[in-house]
Amino acid sequence: MASKSSTRSKSPGYRCAECGWSTAKWVGRCGECQAWGTVGEIGQVGARTKAASVAEPAPVISDVDASTAQFRPTYVGELDRVLGGGLVPGAVILLAGEPGVGKSTLLLDVASRAAVSGNRVLYVTGEESAAQVKLRGERIGAMADTLHLTAETDLSMALGHVEALSPDVLIVDSVQTLSSSEIEGAAGGVSQVREVAASLISAAKKRDMTTILVGHVTKEGSIAGPRLLEHLVDVVCQFDGERHSRLRLLRAIKNRYGPTDEVGCFDLTENGIVGLSDPSGLFVTRTKDQVSGTCITVTIEGRRPLLAEVQALISPTSTPQPRRATSGLDSSRTAMILAVLQARARMDLSQKDSYLATVGGVKLSEPAVDLAAALALASAFMDKPLSPRMIAFGEVGLAGEVRPVPDINRRINEAERQGFQYAIIPSSPNGPGELPEGFRVRAVSTVAEALGVVFPAPAA
């Protein structure tokens, strides 16, 4: 029995590279995450790595030199905002986004600015030819003498360029297009992406070379390739935006050097991509005539308050099932708001088509938008315009109550800065705090109370 037990303990084990699930025998599909081709041998079960001798013991944390990990600005203000201050030497950044969103344009602009500021930059493109990238660079004005460009899909050749140039900044577009001849599988496969990422990260840490990797996304919107890729890099950024809108938003999903609640706003034009330090004007319609069915709100994207306009349209329907259409807002929350208006505010919407949309293609998912959506729908139902100098924000519950939301003062200050003078806000025990001079607020507890404020009953 002892020999059989000893033999069993030395049998090879296998582990999934995606989720870490282990099994005693090889299988083609992971039993935990159901991914194919991710289970590989992990050596001998029970084997132990022996300790190696070190030249000197680990230093005290206070003695560690942190000067090499200081931020270096990219001179793209919105990118620096998201990264926490700029690029860190040796950091590896993964930038993911849908095709055509502007990832390559943004990084080519960053590469040229880094080169102009005195850094040696290597741009490796695997999706386009060098001539195509140069044409884009000339179009957006991203040309510099210390910006080196090469079109490579072989990992060993890309690492050879790194050895020859010793760049301060390396940009790889994209990590899914590089492949190693020593690893089986096509470029973009799980094994290839893992090997490419590990080799580039090792080179970045060894040389204190800031590395930016472009990543593809799946049709579900997640980053393509093994989940291990997101764990290995230092920063993961998501770059997204509507294809038919010029607005692009950059968010940090993971950041070892800064916050993950910042949002960068960019305007994608024919001449390149431009950071927007004040993007609120993109989401608000400025018209001379007052129109029913519109309400301005203030939403928080990361740490930044943004003004956005919610538009509603109510029209009679001849079909048994009224239509409920939304654009830029969550459809389930919109259906809930319609139900609250019908049940708590006595608005008969059962035979009405309801349309709710945002201006400028912005997506509003924050619950604080509920009150503005409710007031816009009520305005469209009554065909009475709201005050053009008024904003509203607050979360609406199924009982018709208006719940408090965070950052009330920040929202009010942004509204006042944009020229608004009046706000309908949720009532809270501590109140709104100190208000800007000349700015008025009305705290409400229910949707019915808010409707009574904006649509007062005529005097008898």
From TrEMBL:
Keywords: ATP-binding, DNA damage, DNA repair, DNA-binding, Hydrolase, Metal-binding, Nucleotide-binding, Stress response, Zinc, Zinc-finger
Entry-linked SMART domains: AAA
Residue numbers binding ATP: 97-104
Superkingdom: Bacteria
Stretch list, region Lon-protease-like: 353-460
Chain ranges for the short sequence motif RadA KNRFG motif as given in the UniProt record: 254-258
Pfam families reported in the protein's UniProt record: AAA_25 (PF13481), ChlI (PF13541), Zn_ribbon_LapB (PF18073)
Domain RecA family profile: from-to ranges: 68-217
HAMAP family referenced in this protein's UniProt entry, alphabetically: RadA_bact
Function comment: DNA-dependent ATPase involved in processing of recombination intermediates, plays a role in repairing DNA breaks. Stimulates the branch migration of RecA-mediated strand transfer reactions, allowing the 3' invading strand to extend heteroduplex DNA faster. Binds ssDNA in the presence of ADP but not other nucleotides, has ATPase activity that is stimulated by ssDNA and various branched DNA structures, but inhibited by SSB. Does not have RecA's homology-searching function. Plays a role in repairing double-strand DNA breaks, probably involving stabilizing or processing branched DNA or blocked replication forks.
Family from the record: Belongs to the RecA family. RadA subfamily.
Record remark: domains: The middle region has homology to RecA with ATPase motifs including the RadA KNRFG motif, while the C-terminus is homologous to Lon protease.
Full protein name: DNA repair protein RadA
Upper classification of the organism: Bacteria, Bacillati, Actinomycetota, Actinomycetes, Micrococcales
The encoding gene: radA
